[in-house]
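Bench log, entry 3. Co-assembly request; chain sequences pasted below exactly as received.
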Amino acid sequence: MRNVAVIGYGVVGSGTVELFEKNREDICHKIGRDCDIKYICDLRDFPGDKFEDRLVKDFNVILNDEEIEVVAEVVGGATFAYEYTRKLLEKGKSVVTSNKELVAMHGAELLSIAKAHDCNYLFEASVGGGIPIIRPLNKCLAGNKITKIAGILNGTTNFILTKMIKEQMSFEDALSMAQKLGYAEADPTADVEGHDACRKICILASLAFGKHVYPKYVHCSGISHITLDDVEYAENAGYGIKLIGSAEPLDDGRIGVIVCPRLVPHSDLLSNVDDVYNAIRVIGDGSGDILFYGRGAGKLPTASAVVGDIIDCLKHKDRSIMIGWDDCSDKSYVAPYKAMKTTMYVRIKGGDSEALKPAVTELFGKVMYLERNGRPDDELAFMTPNMLESEIDEKLEELSKAASIESKIRLI
Amino acid sequence: MRNVAVIGYGVVGSGTVELFEKNREDICHKIGRDCDIKYICDLRDFPGDKFEDRLVKDFNVILNDEEIEVVAEVVGGATFAYEYTRKLLEKGKSVVTSNKELVAMHGAELLSIAKAHDCNYLFEASVGGGIPIIRPLNKCLAGNKITKIAGILNGTTNFILTKMIKEQMSFEDALSMAQKLGYAEADPTADVEGHDACRKICILASLAFGKHVYPKYVHCSGISHITLDDVEYAENAGYGIKLIGSAEPLDDGRIGVIVCPRLVPHSDLLSNVDDVYNAIRVIGDGSGDILFYGRGAGKLPTASAVVGDIIDCLKHKDRSIMIGWDDCSDKSYVAPYKAMKTTMYVRIKGGDSEALKPAVTELFGKVMYLERNGRPDDELAFMTPNMLESEIDEKLEELSKAASIESKIRLI
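Structure output for the full assembly:
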């Protein structure tokens, strides 16, 4: 049976075809029947490509072929991909994807269309690349109330931060190295400013808490403002700096979701996740603390997740297997981050730092001061007590009359 | 619907009932219909227990009740549990279990019975307690050829080793502390000698490589012979000591499976897994290096996995969802461990250590010597080059004419 199609023959698409063909014999054995890739849909030409005879340009060829059971949508974006996915699911063809943008925007709707048409919309590859996280959260941990998710969800920023921490490279140099190595795109905004991580934590939060969490409602700050001075203060105090996406259910039914750099103590495994690796912590009321670690991006790791989903769809033809989330209205369940409690690392500059300490103490009470080699006389770094972020901001507003607030980083 | 039964009301059984009842409303929502625990089967009395009215002593009550769809077998052992499980599956009732002994001995057979009767035999709780590993390996990574599995699979021994490494506690003291804390049983043999870890790596190997790997064919050595001297030599050289179960497919179709303590470099996340935590590394040809970390045992973590499996069975009534392994003959696919290559830490004693060095060099060539504070003049510790274990043994046999071989620990 040539029952599989791939839409998009870029990095992930070609990885998917490569891995599927390499392990096809085993895959057929696992699903208990024959299977193969029939079409690869892309608007570009690939003259001389090994699978040139399977290339098609017209999506409708796939849509209208009765033999096709599963389609891997690895085009990306939320316009054409959205339209393709809807049409395929409405025809009862399962769709698997690495398209985090689409899942984060329309996941609930697409899952419900799949369910209504006895097929599946699977997206293991959309979060954590090759790391199994969607299925574990959706199935293995289904007996738990999830009390917290926190993860390093973007490999590019983790690579940059690792270079800054381990090799004292500046943000700019580390970014340009990441670009040279192909880890960062020419326009690195989506990675560096946290938008990519934001989509991923929204998908995990939606799955874990059963309500669609839209990226547009989530506070998201990136790593471009982190300096080597901050890195050094943190290191001296026993912390690394990581870009963390986190989500937790609040007592009032809302969800606390935020993406931002955080100080992570070295005793925490997350602090030891380096380079382009990702790691996701999930805490359940039964399971306790679980951590998933691996390659969060890249051709074959992402393909590994896509192919796993293809196999699951082939094995469960005409049967919905995912536990979806219900609410696909545009409503926001996200709690304002300023109403959450946090501990904040703060770096200030201005005048004589010793003279600033009484002002800090008056505002925050007793704080922990951090040190770094060659700290200038006019610089001070400290950790606030754990308090509402709105309160911290008020106090810093007050403090800014005496000193300039150079840096604020939340503690994990 | 009161469609669930639990057999065995011990630690895991009571955890399962507790977690299921606590989150029952959410669980019903997830499966899209009502569900509840109807029976708890145990030969003991539990007067005053909250669920006393659901307790039954006769297994046949469960077997013959048409309403029961899923049974959690958390009795343990491979005699009664085996009989119960077979009978239930043959009636088309799904069984979920934490019983690693039974899965390691009869997993292939029970999976095939389940498949033949359109029901499921799930055992997420049998390896890694609350850590999702069975389903990720069986589903998410199904598109990969697995090239290696290596893990810390036993919490008790990891607790003991952590105390030895971090607090210089002797093996005996650490064991007795583990017993006091309830982490080790009065007879700690199954944990300490690696039998428990062995069952777990066999289950993972069977799943990953599609052939039943029997514990009886696997070389298994425990941690009772590890001394604080070994710990110190290892630490000084940048290694921790961990009990590792590992499995890898060999080119000749056999599987290299072994359970033994190993030196693990501190740069490896496995080396940072402390106390009763477990962690499992899986390497796939697509996914690359993946690590799963969490609580490998305990009442609620294990219950988390059991309840996750119950939910999956309820969601997939009359439909087999697992990818099983084929060969349930008694054949051994396990390669003799002596035919595998390894690097070995060796500690020897006898005469003047400086005088022993030429003999070591003659046998092994240039080796790396390790140091510890207050090393006695008659002691020497070194790392062999990577070579066949049979060769190492021959050379050590030769060396034993000049010195006594005190300790041998493989490198990861």
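The longest strand of chain B covers residues 239-249. Chain B touches chain A through 55 residues (CB under 8 Å).
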